[in-house]
Amino acid sequence: MASSIDHDLVILSCANSNPTEHGETLISITDIQSWDLSTILKYQKLKIQAHRSRLVEQSTYFHGLLSGSFSESNLECVSIQWNLENFVTVLKSMYDCTVDITSSNFLSLFETALYFGTERLIQSCKNWFSEVSSFSAPYLLEVPLDDLINIWKFGVEHAIDSIPELCVSYLARNFMWALSSKFFKDIPYNLLLCSIKDPHLTVTSEMHLSEGLLFWIHANTKQSQDLTDIEDGFGDVLKQIRISLLPLWFAAGKRRCPYFSELADESIKTIFRLLKIPPMCSIDVLGTGDLDHLKIRLTEYSKKVDISGCPQMKPAILLLSAAPPSCGNNLQKSTKQLTNSENFSPEQNGILQGLHPTLSFHSVEKVNISKCPRLHLEAIIECLSKSFPSLKNLKAAYLPSFKVTMLERLLEKCPHLSEIDLTVDLSPLIAKEVSAVSCTAAIMPTRSKKSFPVGSSSPNMASSYSVASLTNITKLILEGRTDLSDSDLQDISAFCGSLQYLNLKGCTSVTDVGISNLVLTCHKLHSLMVCDTSFGINSVRALCSPIETCDSSIVHSGKIYLHTLVRNLQILHIGGCKGVDQQSLVELISQTKTLKSLCLRSTNLVDDAVYSYSGSSLEMLDISNTRISGAALAHIIHGSPALKTLNVRGCKNLGKCESSSNSMDFSSLQSLCMWLADNCKLEDIALGWGFSSFSLGALRPAIMSVRAITVGLGASLNEEVLELLPTTCSLLESITLCFQVISDYIVMNILASLKHLHALALCYCLGDISMSGLRLHMPYLRTLRLERVAPWMNNDDLLTLTQNFENLVELSLIGCRLLNPDSIDIISNGWPGLISIHLEDCGEVTANGISSLFNCRALENLLLRHNGSGLHRNLLLDAAAELPMLRQVSLDLCDASDGDFDIPEYADRCSLSIVMIARCKSKKSSNTGFAKVHRKLLHNGTLVLSWNSKNLIRTVVKERL
């Protein structure tokens, strides 16, 4: 019996390639459960006594080695040349021990298991990867992207079909996660292609997919490689993009991309076919074939859906995307009816109700439909409720047609909503103090096909509203909604018991009483943004009033305080609120203890109010255009070590830093800057009056992490400081210099040092500036403003700018008087992705009209003033029809070829929400010395037309807006 047992034992001699101790040790397989790997892996050689029969049974490698005709089959000791830790793990698997598999050791274990032919470990590895690759939540992801890539390569090399398939599925379901990884560019072509073809590909939007693919192609091609080779090599990847669903601004901006230009052009054509431009009667938009190109990518793993910026988007497309394949031709027929219809009617609502079944995507919690002006909102609410029953966050910004009164139906259909954003453009009348000559409002009709001249109006339309329960709403953004009334606030406050964040910025129709009544009702409010509203004394009293529902008081520093809403505020923005007097500000600020963000710009702020502040949590402070002194500013900064954003532009009293009984001793603005440097690490700063080169030098420790800097009127920085700016603030992404003395060298230094600069604004600056300062290539620059600094600019210079700054989306040129009508072609062809164009006093650029500007298909903001009298009377009507995203237009009657402009009626304005038309009058003047009489144009007022969901408001002001 003893000889039989001895014959079954074999010694496995394993060399350790990374020993920490010399010598060898002998261990037995019978003690495998108690092996301490950290100990046995220290030795230079490890000898393991194992059962020959067990090895032969569990391993094909040992079966061939120990039971065949090899010489080793009768040896008592067999040498193993393999990674010791992995081999020990294989042995543990053979003897039914638990094996810990992770993404870091998966490949090495799998390879070891394959080499030694241990089916048990092979299956364990497969089971582990199958399990972990089924996860789709980011916090559950156990396989980093670089490991996933290596696992895929391993599966392909070893012809293990299940492994590549799992990798493809894993990547497809978690594509948004992969896009954020630094290893995304390393994904092999076949893995990428298979993943984006996978039916479970999960992306937030088609734009995200496109951006990722373009980044991958750029990273995997050499700059000198021929474009044909790129298209041949990676063309199949780009063909997977559903170009019908791209945002218009994205497609327009990619028309100059070398390997995406054709797709971009085709995308724009498709978008405009869906928009019925040209008319639907001459184009079969949907066709008769497969409609997959119109389906938004929705899967059971989708958590966010972003279709913002897609004017072609309609409820029918969303409905088509959410419908199961079994609906077939009947659904396609109904979808065509909805898509081809211009108005949403009760009959079409019946079509929506009758389409069954509709897939529900319960994982989707966020939907963004901003800037989709053609959405019929009654229909989209139906689609949202059916397709996304778990919807919590809806962003529907820049949709003026989305009436506040629709909240009732929206919340009835989507009861889980907790955050809603209904932002629209702010009225230009609140940007600055204006003197109104007249103001009239006309309620809009439901439909019209005509235009009317500047002096006419339109008939009335009534509406009714009753708000449903908003118990789940915690965040509500109504910024810019001039159609919001006190009665709307009353309805909201009655049902918003859980409201915590409220943004009413620019809601000019609500009163101080209306705001105060809402504040008194919403006891959980911790963020209130009411800039440029009638927020005043009543609202301050409401914030400072004891909360009746609270039973206890607060004890702080030995004093007893009643529970008030203001003590819980984290965000308070009351900039531009002139109704708050000095005494009320003192009362309000003295009670704020937990504020993180405070905006008091253009208010009656005085030092006493600032000295009364005793909080220590401020991260953002905006006191621009106030009378605060430097000593008072130092007081609030000294207690705010977390301050990251500071705006003191327009504060003329900062130089008054005399000591005060409430403050520390400050003898100059230099002392204040030293305090800033010692206490803060800023990320955004705006400076003005009193700041000099010395004070900015003292600020250096505080601004080393700044990403955006604005230097405005009243600040004076010398060339040496401006030269050091890119070095001091190496993270800068946005620079605005106003009324400074600059040179070519300064501009060249900024562009050369800050290659990732996103925005550059040079406004009303003096100095020796020429084109040589703007000749550097800046691929990341998105915003360029050259205002009264480039009078020398001609068409050749403009063409150079289009080549150096090819990715601009915002352009502002003022005072470039050498430009001519050809400049319009250069701008539109060079920057087809522009969303904002400001041209003022630029020679004769509009002398022949601006038809070529319509090539910038995604324009949202257009300003043309004093550029030549070639603008046709129907410019606004044509622009509204040709540019579906256009929301704001500013013109001057001096540029009108017929002396006037026609204004589109409500239903024909598309996305237009604000139109400003300035008027000039001529004044005779004479030169006494030469007796020469000539006419000079003087501003004579501005007509402001503002549309909301209810009214067209016509206001005439004296100022030029």
Automatic annotation (TrEMBL):
Which residues are in the BTB domain? Answer: 35-103
Task: Please give the Gene3D superfamilies that the UniProt record associates with this protein.
Answer: 1.25.40.420, Potassium Channel Kv1.1, Chain A, Ribonuclease Inhibitor
Write out the pathway annotation from the protein's UniProt entry.
Protein modification; protein ubiquitination
The Gene Ontology biological process annotation of the record reads: SCF-dependent proteasomal ubiquitin-dependent protein catabolic process
Q: Which Pfam families match?
A: BACK (PF07707), BTB (PF00651), LRR_At5g56370 (PF24758)
GO CC entries: SCF ubiquitin ligase complex
State its role.
Answer: May act as a substrate-specific adapter of an E3 ubiquitin-protein ligase complex (CUL3-RBX1-BTB) which mediates the ubiquitination and subsequent proteasomal degradation of target proteins.
Output the PANTHER family linked to this UniProt entry.
PARTNER OF PAIRED, ISOFORM B, PARTNER OF PAIRED, ISOFORM B-RELATED
Q: What is this protein called?
A: BTB domain-containing protein
- Write down the species: Erythroxylum novogranatense
Taxonomically, what lineage is the organism? Eukaryota, Viridiplantae, Streptophyta, Embryophyta, Tracheophyta
